[in-house]
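Hello again,

I reread your note about wanting to compare the complex against the isolated chains. To keep things tidy I'm splitting this into two emails, and this first one only covers the full assembly. Below are the input lines as submitted, including protein chains and any nucleic acid or small-molecule components. They are followed by the predicted structure of everything together. The single-chain runs will come separately.
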Amino acid sequence: MLAKKEDKLNSAGKNLPGPAKPLAPRSFFRLVFYTAFFVLAVCGILVFVFDPFYHYHAPWFKLKAVLNEKEYQVPGTLRNFEYDAVLAGSSVVECADNKDFDNAYGCTVIKAVRSYGGTADLCWFLEEAHRSREVLQIFYNIDPSALSGDAVTTFKSVGCPMYLYDRNPFNDVKYLFNRDVLFKRIPYEIARSRTPGYDVNKSYSWAEGKDFSENAVLEHYMRTPSVARMQAENMWDAQCSANIALLEEEISSHPETYYRFFFPPYSMLWWDNSIRTGERDAVLRNERRTMEALTMYQNVEVYCFQGAESVICDLNNYMDTIHFDPSVNAWMVKEMAAGRWRVHPGDEEAVVGSVRRLTDSLQERYLKQIGEAGRFVYDIK
Amino acid sequence: MLFYSFLFVLIFLPVTVIGWHFLGAFRNRAVSEWFMILASIVFYSLFGVRDLLVLAGCTAAGYIFHRLIWNARSARATRAILILSVLFFVGVLSFYKIAKVSIPVGLSFYIFWIIAFLAARAKGELADVGIREYLLCTLYFPKLAQGPITLPDEMFSSFRNRTRGRIDRDKLVRGLMLFIFGLAKKVLIADTLASPVRFGFENAALLDTGTILLVLMSYAFQLYFDFSGYCDMGMGVSWMLGIDLPVNFDMPFKSKSLGEFWNRWHATLSRFFTKYVYIPLGGSRKGSTRTVVNIFAVFILSGLWHGIGLTYLVWGLFNGAFVALSHFAVKRTAKTPVGEEAGKKRSDLPARLRIFAAFLFTLIFFGSKDIGSAFTMLRRLVLPLWPGFLLRTAASIQPVELYPVLKALSIYLPGTENTVLLGLWVLILILCFFLSTRDNARDIAARMPLTSGRAIAMALLFVWTMLAFNNVASFLYFAY
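Full-complex prediction:
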């Protein structure tokens, strides 16, 4: 009887929680290794499946493509999405509606945007697109600054996530094992994708919540108090030639693709600044040279909206001296589709001349009034 | 190469540890030692070619001076060569400090090691050292980029005493744990605090008193967890290789005097300055005035070591003054007869808080970009002000792990996110205080029972830190 009771107590004692049994160093190490390996594998699989930067594939599980981080998402979308046309450019095309291009040109367009629209960067994007599929049409926004900038890619120098740009599978660990991606991008992708009203065609658009008005633009514009002497118009010839060469290489190596280049309508305040800093003539020379080079090709159309007085002189279209309302993007597509504002071979000098005359007349016709009303903020540094 | 990089953790570390132990089994230890030298060069080469060339130049110069000292025919010649070598290395260091060009990673750490090596050589404390052994101890990668500043006998005996072909598995596992603790201190704590610290120092003129206090506390803990985290990683890696490194952070916030604090905070630098500056100047043996002068000399030098500028000089002066006061206070206490009061056990807390407050005060000068900003911050700290950017400073934390929660708050309880972040900030500081006043990571790693629960916890901590590698700020002490 007593022996039975003792057995019972002993067996009960066995179930009591006691100090954890120590492991041998080797077993401890193995357990750390296997657990870490397992958890990392789960993290990697989660990132691969949801892939918020579309580095491996287009969205799965009927999720929408949530595109709001151009530095992270443009390379992946160019490689993995379904499209046959590309809209390349700077922040001024970010607010364009892809559907406008799709409807006007019967294509499926995707954006390849880069801050400042550097030529080398955009050409790199286009090359990625060509490598992944046949691209039938390219709409290319040329910013004046892109022609005077250096003709080299800037991804690395500005700290872009190069593991998403190169094709080295080993550095994908930076993407697969990344707490930003796991805790921020994936939840955001899922939540945004399920938000009613989210429009995939307005990818990378920053227009929501922005104030497009004359007041907003004038607040952003710091006018230089004096007018500098106009600088030599050939001061950017070397950079411009290098950028034109990149564009020509892109065009000539893809004769099957049809290109539409367009110069966007920056506001009259941008032109005012370029006159006051003495850069206007060099800007126009760059543009003329670029137009002359591009219009030579059979598979190219060039449009210039810089002479659109009703747009550039109405500051209510802008939030700052450069960035315009999405309605201007829509207007440009319509105009291009209708063949207006096109620069035909031989017209380059005339088009640039009309922009020169318009910008020369701005002071008397528009800016004087604003100045007299005391609405300019002067940069007195 | 950084300790908190995928390249280091996934490739360099395993290859080096396996290679070192595998080649260490050979009778001829030269093979494994050349392997370690090569590995250290590879490790350092990823900081850039220029940095590698400076390291190569200093290492070569150190060896040449060493040979000259070895071949010197008289004590006078030995002394002259030693002085020349010290001038040369201090000149190199001063050039980078004064020229305000970016300092090669770990420059002063390896220069101090070389100076200590040459001094030991000149004093005859070391037997002849061959090129392989010299390179091994100079370039040893766990201490190369950010210390600790080892003494020659520590390094040489550590390498000479290792046993051929025997892998201490227990030490290897505990080294791994210490490495993970160090990673977590750096990546999860120091880097989280970096944002409010940066924001606070940049906007000091707009902050209220409470915010400045929180910013200064965050800065103190950021420095502590950043630097001690690196040292833990270095020591952890070194344990994995079977080599001991000296302790650099020995629970400084447990100190009862500022002198003790500096012997526990960056202990190997304090030891270096004590041995090679304070004691040669006479230490505390030449009267009170001379002691004070020597203390000031050490701290002014320490300030200038951190950077050439008025803020660092003032930081050094204040520390010198505090340590001198503390030195005499400790001396007076020691002389006081043991009475009824003295016999009672008194709490260390007031002393610790005093030291912490003095440390925070000096950080105003250490962290400010110029003396004007430092005084602005000081003014706003001393004259009670409210309100001023408390919530905005708290908002700079932005922990990624809480992104979904904060986003949900912003939608369902708009305006409360920053209050939650303030609470989180305070919680982090309490956690930091708790962690920094308990046993240090080295002791925990050395004593922790190896249970399955702890293995899983270590693995999860390791993964958590790895997931943060992509967003990590560089170590604060790389630039010294």
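For quick reference: Chain B has a mean pLDDT of 87.

B.
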